[in-house]
């Protein structure tokens, strides 16, 4: 048997990129002990889910009627038993339903229990929406702080500062109330010295924000770094990482996310907002007994919280629900779908009420296009899909190679220095180019924008000829010098974003990948869109344009190409399809652009899958060795259960416990000499007939409690798991009955069961282990870790890369 309890020492020595394990040190105990208690005191009522007689001595009856704190709970870095948790919840629900007919108070309790899930979703939506609004407002202000300050009030960002100004529309960004650092320090903003001073202040602020972020993460909440989505996927599959969704992680992640985004690093806040929302869900679960005491029910709540996180990140409630279903959730019943929808709705409504951007929209880069697209434009859209797939595959391979290097070399020991160097390089390269100097969200907003008459951006500096203007729609026009300058700057920005994001994602600060990926695609899309627009303008008589693009008409919308490119690159990196398209059309409000988005998203997924099967989150899960059994992968090998089970040939025999012949000392010796998570219980060593399965944690807690509270329990006391005590001489010490902690219905398969069926059982039932029998006799055991190692071995990967149980 190979399911070993994961020891604290080996945890501290590992070097994970997503959860900063290598610099956790002593602070880990601080975050674990305080953030997410192991529910020891709360599980008393549910110590057994499969019954078991209690017909022993009266002393034994008294002892077992007391709640056993901790029995039925799980240790850190272990997998939950979904079957046991669901069975407990059914037992609890049956008890409440039967009691509801007895009294009015019990009926009220039954109604409140049924309503508690919806109330919890309401609280999650309100809290997630409020935190998202706070993060948006703070990040907007601190991003502008790098360039200057508002004299009317330092707490105003550039846009809010200039709202009351009397400047003309074209000079709206140059209001007297807003002063750059050079104007504030030396009195004027023109000239080489003023430029150098602004450059210096920009770099200093960026370094200050990023250093503060990494020091807070390192000092208070090591789990607050990264995007959090790989870990949330693993937690939702049943793995326990205590403290990962706790209150310290929530506080530090919220603060450092603002700092990291404001520093100008090539990262986004959208992925970390999912982590923040899941922290809110986990903390609020403690208000309701139903969710506090049951790990499976809690994971249903976390699935809904993930939907609320995406809802506030993109202003896309339906896209959030689909993202949770498609990308992060492991178990997603219909009830969770409805509750996810409600949580996403409340979160979006809360953020809309806060109105962080002052434009009555939930995101900075909301756009509306009204021009129809032509069928021939599908060709450039598919080209953007191919680019997105190639970029996604390139990014995943490069980023994973860099993160692996960080794990295996001394680089991982200096997270603060790494953040300092990457921030310094980013800031020094970003300032000279206005498209990299602005925040990435503002850049995407500008790239998505469809040029109007009043637009003063370089991207809209066309040669104007208004004789052919019809209504508000501007015709395709010849590009002016500003457009050509913008094209060069955007090309340089594209090269910088492509490479700097590889080194940024996975550093020890909160870092999302949605926004940088969308920026890469939006730049590529805008470049292609402007090229197509100029081609149509100068060659409208070509056969490909003649049928639908006459001279003086508005044929090509470059902003639409930017949007399609953004979707393609995001799809190439994450391999999202349905949820991605819905998020993009909720962002843009354009239902008529679903087909171009679908074509680009599907093409990017096909191209990226042809190069490498894994999305970025699955790749990080594998890199960190999390025990995640991917439900989307098919198991096609012809192996049997006997090929995977432990013990193998030449291994020591399987460690078992007999049902009524072992003493307390015998079992304590087994516990001390092995590190397994549980033990099969058999009739006798000779017969090897299976009785059940008992967990190590439950055994330790029960024996310790019995030694303290039950008279006469000594090292020579017999432990029995049967209904009736075995016959012993009168002089024998008191016996200890532990039938209540025995799982009488462990999952078993025969040694000839094909592994594809075993893998399906593990995936669909969420098992921790499965016992293997032959002609009714116990042969061995298959744990989730054995299954993962077997799959890794068949894929020619290192089976020892699976770190946790």
Automatic annotation (TrEMBL):
InterPro entries: CBS_dom, CBS_dom_sf, Cl-channel_core, Cl_channel-5, ClC. It catalyses: 2 chloride(in) + H(+)(out) = 2 chloride(out) + H(+)(in). GO terms for molecular function: antiporter activity; ATP binding; voltage-gated chloride channel activity. Its main location: membrane. Residues 645-709, 735-801 form the CBS domain. The chain crosses the membrane at residues 115-135, 199-224, 245-267, 273-289, 301-325, 375-394, 414-431, 486-507, 513-532. It is a multi-pass membrane protein. Keywords: Antiport, ATP-binding, CBS domain, Cell membrane, Chloride, Endosome, Golgi apparatus, Ion transport, Membrane, Nucleotide-binding, Repeat, Transmembrane, Transmembrane helix, Transport, Ubl conjugation. SUPFAM superfamilies: CBS-domain pair, Clc chloride channel. It is found in: Cell membrane; Endosome membrane; Golgi apparatus membrane; Membrane. GO terms for cellular component: early endosome; endosome membrane; Golgi membrane; plasma membrane; synaptic vesicle. Belongs to the chloride channel (TC 2.A.49) family. ClC-5/CLCN5 subfamily. Interacts with NEDD4 and NEDD4L. Proton-coupled chloride transporter. Functions as antiport system and exchanges chloride ions against protons. Important for normal acidification of the endosome lumen. May play an important role in renal tubular function. The CLC channel family contains both chloride channels and proton-coupled anion transporters that exchange chloride or another anion for protons. The absence of conserved gating glutamate residues is typical for family members that function as channels. This is Chloride channel protein. It comes from Chrysolophus pictus.
